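ok trying again, last paste got cut off:
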Amino acid sequence: MKHPLPAQPRHIAVLRLSALGDVCNLVPTVRALQRQWPEARITWIIGKAEHSLLAGLSGVEFVVYDKATGLAGMRRLWRELADTRFDVLLHMQQALRASVLSLGLKAELRIGFDKARAKDAQHWFTHRQLAPHPRAHVLESFLDFARLMGIEDLSLEWNLPVPAEATEEAAALTGDAPYLLISPCANPRLRNFRNWSAEGYAAVIEHAWTQYGLKTVLSGGGSTQEREMGERIVALCHAEAVIDAIGNTTLKGLLALIGRARAVIAPDSGPVHMANAMGTPAVGLFATTNPDRAAPYLWRDYVVNRYPDAVRTYLHRELDEINWGQRVRHTDAMTLIRIEDVIGKLDAALTRPKGRKQEDESDEA
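nice, full thing came through this time. structure:
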């Protein structure tokens, strides 16, 4: 027998710790919950970096878990919420760490992904599972939680908060002149082969400068890999065409930079989804991951998609022969992306009619 859904939940828990792009894709689901039940409390259990990006999100109480603290951090969080009982827990992270964390939370109903999408046996930790949704985009997978709860208004809304100090941080780097933002590197973790070439980025920067008079702001974290990539790009460009801000912005500052940019170019990583949330055109560079699952949702027409070629070249298979969302973990996959492809998509994004996204998003949800 299925556990009943609450008709009027008073307190809703959202469990999604990471990553930056994923939490951006989740916000429209939170907004849908708020529209349906404006009096309900929403508590979002979230990762440390992700909280620094979304802090101040209206109508949401955050409880932060730093994964570096391990089980000790979980115990602290459980003690913090010992007297809290949720009407429903939306378990939106398919990872064993999150499932273990969920065990210490008190909830009348626990909803998770269907078995096909529930990695690490997540379905063992929930009472009810989503209806199957094969080949779903990540954003749509999150909206499936709202669908299960009977919410019909799934219009897309973000309204991410950008504090004044973040706007000032961005303005100090760029002044009032328009600019392009490039975040050249994805998360530098093991076998995460999502980065394009310094030479390719430099060619795009020169195009933006000579054809549109746009400087390019380079953004990213402070890792050695990211700093070295920035240095290589800068060395290949005219000095006046590029502002190297890699390692020199806060996440809120980056959000402000993205919100003010004419366009954003990045591989499959947080910045393209931050751009999506801020309404800034995003040119996503995809070869190792499937853009049908993970592209910036409102700007899919501007994706450079070499994923099918990478599947054929390095997995020696066709798209219909592999699992949905399977990654191509090959060091050369991103070399399939051509400079002219990126420039073509950038031109389309910069010359689109003002206010027009890839499609009317109200038709997408």
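cool. Confidence is low (pLDDT under 50) at residues 359-365. Residues 228 and 282 are 24 Å apart (CA to CA).
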